Amino acid sequence: MGCACMKQRPDHEEMVLLAAQTCFEVSDVKALHELFKKLSSSMVDDGLISKEEFQLGLFRNSKKQSLLADRIFNLFDSKHGGMIEFGEFIRSFSIFHPDAPQEEKIAFTFQLYKSRKTGFIEHEEVKEMVFAFLNESDLILSDDLVEAIIDKTFREADTKGDGKIDPEEWNEFVSRNPSTLTNMTIPYLKDIGTSFPSFVLRSEPEDDINNLG
Asked: Cβ(24)–Cβ(97) under 8 Å?
């Protein structure tokens, strides 16, 4: 379940470097380090965020299986080490900053929805993810309505008509439908030095579903 050794606290030089690589100021990185410490010690105080700690932060439940949490965790865990390090945490969170480039947000959402097998966004995987999310959130929508939302998205996005959405098609779709990125911006990250956040990456469940269409 991760490295047995304790991760050293990042020094000022590392925080300055992370600030230079992201949308954050050094003071923001320091504030986020306090959040990182809280998350990484919620189950095991080892200076790393495990998948269980990540789910505890997202859903207040470390035992609940969550396809959405798994996908987001894997994107934060950019080194694929099975744990989230502080640098990964900061760089990933920066994508949700109001000043982050739109192309970074588009790329993140593509990675979130794409099939791990083919590298494209495919109908069945998106459907699986949406239904899993509905089960987790206890939001009740009819299967027909969910299918209609997904079908509409694919009709609009799959301009090549090959039954899948590639990065270019996704970019064009999001550019035409900017509301798709609504949940990719966390406003308080703009002023995190003075407003300490709670670890919630998503807004209301119904908003997430509606933003697919």
From this structure: yes
CB 58 within 8 A of CB 72: yes
- Residue 84's DSSP bridge partners are 49
- pTM equals 0.81
Q: First vs last Cα of the chain: how many Å apart?
A: 38
Which of residues 198 and 22 earns the better pLDDT score?
A: 22
| 69-91: pLDDT as tens digits | 889 999 999 999 999 999 999 99
- φ/ψ of 66, rounded to 5, equals -145, 115
- SS3 assignment for the chain: CCCCCCCCCCCHHHHHHHHHHCCCCHHHHHHHHHHHHHHHCCCCCCCCECHHHHHHHHHCCCCCCCHHHHHHHHHHCCCCCCCECHHHHHHHHHCCCCCCCHHHHHHHHHHHHCCCCCCCEEHHHHHHHHHHHHHHHCCCCCHHHHHHHHHHHHHHHCCCCCCEECHHHHHHHHHHCHHHHHHHCCHHHHHCCCCCCCCCCCCCHHHHHHCCC
User: pLDDT tens digits, residue range 3-59?
Assistant: 444 566 788 999 999 999 999 999 999 999 998 999 999 999 999 999 999 988 876
* Angstrom distances, CA of residue 81 to CA of 22, 74, 76, 93: 22, 9, 11, 18
Q: What is the pLDDT of residue 110?
A: 95
* d(C-alpha 104, C-alpha 122), whole Å: 21
Residue 39 amino acid letter: L
